[in-house]
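User: Could you check the structure of this?
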Amino acid sequence: SAGQASSKPAAGLQEFAAAVQRQLADKQRTIRAFDIGGTGVKTALIGAPALKDFLFLDHLALPTEEGELPQFQWIEEPKQLGTAPGEDGFSQWLLEAVPRLRREVDDPSVCFGVSIGGDVDHATGAIND
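Assistant: Sure, the predicted structure tokens are below.
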């Protein structure tokens, strides 16, 4: 029936949400975040508990001026890596730009997030907004 079909996805979402909350509570979990956009590649390293604290802030009560926002607890503050080469050589460039990345890739307590603004032309490495 239609009721059974709609309750199954809801249960799956509840399980997913619970898993995300467990991971965010894990003090050993870290997130390597990348942003790839028109100004180049940026990265930062964040502890899961700090991200959880930020995500569950009362955003309606936050001040509107950027200088008044609560201090975010970075493990590694955001860093501009520069403009990446095209598809050829990108991996080596990234490993050189972020020396600890090779260890992080092999570490099951590190997860990765990537934000891309626009479409990536892999032949040239250009990002089309």
